[in-house]
Amino acid sequence: MSERRLEGVGVTPLSGVGTVIWYDQEVDLPEPPAPDEVDPDAEHDRFETALDAAREELQAERDRTAEEVGEDEAAIFDAHLQFLDDPQITGAVEDAIDEGVPAEHAVREGFEGAIEQMEAAGGRMAERADDLRDIRDRLLRIVTDSERLDLSELPEGTVLLAEMLTPSDTAQLDPERVAGFATAKGGRTSHAAIFARSIGIPAVVGVGEQLLEIEADAEIVVDGEAGEVVVDPDEATRERAAESRDVEIRTERVETADGEPVEVAANIGTAAELEGAVAQGADAVGLFRTEFLFLDRATPPDEDEQLETYVEALDAFPEGRVVVRTLDIGGDKPIPYVDAEEEENPFLGTRGIRRSLGPDAELFRTQLRALLRAGAEGDGELAVMFPMVATVEEVDRSLAVIEDVRAELDEDGLGYEMPELGVMVETPAAVFMGEQLAERLDFFSIGTNDLTQYVMAASRQNEAVAHLHNPRDPAVLRAIDRAVDAAHAGDAWIGMCGEMAGDPELTELLVGLGLDELSMSAVTIPNVKGNVVEIDTAEAREFAEQALASETRAQVNELLEE
């Protein structure tokens, strides 16, 4: 039988080959009895007992995920715990029980309205609907006393297939046992995809209905780099998949074949991810997303708590650099204790440096105090960058705040060290004003996720324009090229910390464009380092020139395929 290839969205640059096990977490319910046969008091008790059990399970899964994967990923379970206490959801279940509906049917009915509402909103809110399904199915399993497949004990060499996987499903997967997974639904930013990248499991999502035709016990390859599921793979395909897991970890810094150094760094959200970054061979931290220190808590972290975290990061890379992004909230990252009005279009609203120089000025000053102090106490080299910069005035005002903070620390008699200072290049305005910004700063870091969104006028949350949100578009490549030229003209170094940097297919192109540093999810570092050492810089520059001359994304893709 010849192999058959199904296309989806690859979320990790890894491949795996194994035997299919299907996972279906849906609980089948019988027809409910008549309302007059139901005891509402008894059903309320059953529902309350299920809520308590669900809270215990979620807390245990949250603690395990924080320890084994990272605090960033564990925060997903905090949101689930909040949903269990949401009166709009639990109230709908309780109302159904009052009307004579058994607890399990009431759970199904009570969650349906909220799920449909989130799905209708589209984008990231639609992905939150998956979180609600996760909670609903957990409650149904508990209240019906149904068995749950233990995904942490799957046979070695399993490829898990499902219509979709929830965060609590994916968090159980053991990368030593699971060769990969594929889902019919889901996108690159779904929680299942995020977990796959974090724990290093080959994964393809969004394959569609054709995935459901694959039979249990079939042998398949999950190619997370090409975004393919290969059914009945031939020997050559199986061998390539097996070899992809044996990527060499290079702990030393790398350079191109003709001797040009390229720093390969890690993006992290919490100190818990530092160990994994070091283990994958990261030279440095190219993006420390500090907002995760501020999320899922009632009050902001104080100066000493932040200082301890930043010093821990610097100590993890005594010979490297740690680039810390100042608080980047707004858009899709609200913080409960920050007074932020709901905005019509939050991605074009008050976010990033706009908030730090405005309503969050005190949080900004406290963070800068902790950072400057950490620069003196930690072993590594500190760099600090400001997010969502659009104007020269924003940079000038930020530098003035740093000078004020320095004066405060002098007055307080506290030691500090000035870090390198830079900005995230995420807006077309920052690209166009690049030369003026570089005169004031030490470095740029290109955030391709947002830069693509703003260059292409295509929201990251709107699936209807997802085809436009692609960093391979010539317009985005030309924006990157212009930013690189501006940085180097001002004697600033320039890196990239968007997801584009971690795509091994694009390493040669990015080196050819002149990037000095590439920062990415830790799991992709070995592949990118392996590509860097094979690159001839002159050839890469010629390749980049051809890509920049392209008029369509199809032409860019054709060049990449060649």
From TrEMBL:
Locations listed in the record: Cytoplasm
Q: Which residues form the PEP-utilising enzyme mobile domain?
A: 154-227
One Pfam match, given by its short name, reads PEP-utilisers_N
Where is it predominantly found?
A: cytoplasm
The record places domain PEP-utilising enzyme C-terminal at 249-535
Family stated for the protein in its record = Belongs to the PEP-utilizing enzyme family.
The protein, known as: Phosphoenolpyruvate-protein phosphotransferase
Organism annotation: Halapricum desulfuricans
| Gene that produces this protein | ptsA
